[in-house]
Amino acid sequence: MSDLHKDENHEVETKEVDTHEETIHEDETPVVESQKEEIQEAENRSAKNKKSKPKLKGFFGMVAAGVVGSVLTMTVIPQTDFFQEYYQPVSSGAVAEASSQGNAVNIVPTSTTNASASVADIVDKTSSAIVGIVNKQQQNNPFSRTSEVVESGSGSGVIFKKTNDEAYIVTNNHVIEGAAEIEVSLHNGEKVGAQLIGADALTDLAVLKIDGKYADNVLSFGDSSTLRAGEQVLAIGNPLGLEFSRTVTQGIVSAVDREISVSTSAGEWDLNVIQTDAAINPGNSGGALINSQGQLIGINSLKISESGVEGLGFAIPSNDVVPIVNEIISSGKISRPYMGVSLASLNEIPSAYYQDLPDDVTGGVMVTYVDPASGAAEAGIKAQDVIVAINDQKVETSNDLRKYLYTEAKVGDEIELKIYREGKLLTEKMTLANNIQAS
Description:
Layout: H1 3-26, H2 33-52, H3 54-76, H4 92-98, E1 107-108, H5 119-126, E2 130-141, E3 146-162, E4 166-171, H6 173-176, E5 181-185, E6 191-200, E7 205-211, E8 221-222, E9 232-237, E10 247-264, E11 267-276, E12 288-290, E13 296-303, E14 313-317, H7 318-331, E15 336-338, E16 341-345, E17 365-370, H8 375-379, E18 386-390, E19 393-394, H9 398-408, E20 414-421, E21 424-431, E22 433-435
Parallel strand pairs: 1-8
Antiparallel strand pairs: 2-3, 2-5, 3-4, 4-7, 5-6, 6-7, 9-10, 9-12, 10-11, 11-14, 12-13, 13-14, 15-22, 16-17, 17-18, 18-19, 18-20, 20-21
C-alpha cells in the first residue's frame, strides 16, 4: 500500500479515535491507556473489513432493497391511487364482453346474492343490443311476370358476440325461415343487410352475422339453471313490428323446465322452455329475456294466444341456446344422428294402411320413405315398416323416436330397431350417419 494511502488511513483512524474519545469524555467515563489501544485495534479491523467487502455489502443491500420494494408493490401500492392515471379498472361489462370474443361463447356465472339493478338501468345497458329482423322473400308479380323481394315478416334478435370485424346475432329460426334476404334494424334506426350463418328448426334458433362496426353493445349469456319461479325478468323486443322496436315488458318466471310440443319444419319436437308472464307478442320472437342482473337468460320464442289465455309466454333457456349457437358458428349447422327415413305416427295414418298389426300394438311410427343412400336402406328398412322400439325403448310417436335419437344416441352408434313388416315382428340393426336432415 502506498504512503499516500497509509496517511489517509491514519488520518481517518485518528479522527475516529478522537471522536470516540470526545464521546467518552462527554459521558464522563474514565478510559485507561490499555482500553484505548484495544478500541483502536478493533476500529482498525473494522476499517479493513469495510474496505475488503464493499461489493458484498452492496450486493446484499440491493437484494434487501428489492425485497422491500416487492413487498411495497404488493401491499401498499394497490391501496393507493398511484397507477390510476395509467391503468383503468376493468368493468364488469368489459369482462362479460371479453368472454364472448373467443372461439366459443360461454355462460357468465349468475350471482344469487348480488342486489338487483333498477329496471331503468338494465334497459339502458341492454336495449341497444336488441335488433329488429326483417324477413324478405321472393314474390312473383302475376301482372309483370317478374319476381321481386318483399317483406314477409319481422321479429327480434340479440347481439351476443363481437369480434374486430364481425358481430353475431341470435334469433328464432321461424323468424328467418325461407328468407331470400335478411335485414337488421339497429337501435339507432339504421338498417343493414345480414348473412345467415346457420339455423336449427328443432330448437327454433338461428345465427346471423353483420359487420362488427354496427354493434355498439353485446349481451352476455347468464346461467338459466339458477332461475327460480318468482324471479323478476324483462322481455325486450319488437312486438307487432319495428314501429314498436325495443319495447320492454316486465314479469316473473312462472316456471322453469317446461316441455311443450311444437311443430317445426323438421317435425314435431318437445321444446324445453322457461315460462314467464312477461308479455310476449308476435314480433317479440327472437328477442331477449333478461334477468335482474342484466344478463341474457333466454330467447323469447313463442306465446300461446288462444281465446281466454293470457300471460303464457315462453323462452328458450340460455343454457340450451349456447351450445347450439357455438356449433352453428363453428360448422354452420347442427349435426345430429341420421337414420335416412321419413316417418309418420300411426295416429296420423288411416288404419287401413296397417291392418296386419297385432291388436295389442297401439302405437308406433310408419316409415313412409327410405333414402337409398342411408344407413336405413343398407339395413333393409322398407317403406310401410312400423317401428315400435329403438334399443328396447318403446316408440309411440315419431317424436319419441326423434327425441331418443337426438338425446340418447350419437353419430356412429349402432342401434337396434324392432319393426313390424306384414304382421311379423323383426329386429334390424343399423349404424347412424351424420346429416343435417331431420329423421
